[in-house]
Amino acid sequence: MKNDPRWLPPMSALTAFEAAARHGGFSRAGEEIGLTQSAVSRQIAQLEAMLQTPLFDRIGRRVRLNEAGRAYADELLPALDAIRRATVRASAKRQRRALRIATLPSFGMRWLAPRLPLLTALHPDLVVDFAARSEPFDFGHEDFDAAVHFGVAEEWPGAVADFLFREEAVPVCSPTWLAAHPLRDPADLLTVPLLSQSSRRDAWPRWLAAAGVDASKWEPGPAFEHFLMLAQACAAGAGVALIPSFLIQPELEAGTLVVPFARPLSTDQAYYLVYPQNGLDGPLRAFRDWMVDQASDG
């Protein structure tokens, strides 16, 4: 059946069916796609003949999707939407060198956004739209050209993963909080609130163990979805958190956050730019090369 043209209905029939399924009738479907009601009816009759099953129940002059029609629509409509998205993207890229990139929220705000003027200066015709995403997804079902991923390359199946850099997380708190809660050695952390990032709740036990502290005595504190929320909570005096140093450089330089123990936590995980295996076209190649170059500069 694969690639057999006998099982690919005419696009005109699919378009008529999709519109009729959404509107629940042939008349409004025809108004949308520029056909008469009878022309829509003929297109759907052609599709039903090919499928050898009715898709609508005819009740007088009214029509209504039947069970077979609903099942067909449930599978067909997402496929047509995917075709539309792919066509829009291909057309937009011909008209302008456009990309849509998914990025981790804190990474996008603190690492990507400040560097965008450099990208514009190097590629003034390249238009990049960014959207926040925290979890891997299927490029075949999402309208993105690439994504920023933290973890290991193998966690994003079916994609190419270009290494950017590793991170070092450091314990931080506000200087006012530290003055009120003196920390003389790492074991003192077991007596104060330890804040976490939601997807990295194991960071504190690993840091404590590396510092020679019995991590079994660790008690989880509040968790935050994004690192910058975590940084704000620390700056407000909520406790101590482990945060990648590159994400809080402004706070460290301004002194709103301080490092009580200079013991960074490193892991085998890293930041990657991931993209479909066949997706490295001209615009994405330019963006990829720029990202890798920026990452190598630190």
From TrEMBL:
Similarity field: Belongs to the LysR transcriptional regulatory family.
InterPro entries linked to this entry: LysR-type_TF_proteobact-type, LysR_HTH_N, LysR_subst-bd, WH-like_DNA-bd_sf, WH_DNA-bd_sf
Source taxon at top rank: Bacteria
Designated name of the protein: Transcriptional regulator GcvA
Segments forming domain HTH lysR-type: 9-66
One annotated GO biological process: DNA-templated transcription
GO MF term set: DNA-binding transcription factor activity; sequence-specific DNA binding
Keywords on record: DNA-binding, Transcription, Transcription regulation
Pfam families with a match to the protein in the record: HTH_1 (PF00126), LysR_substrate (PF03466)
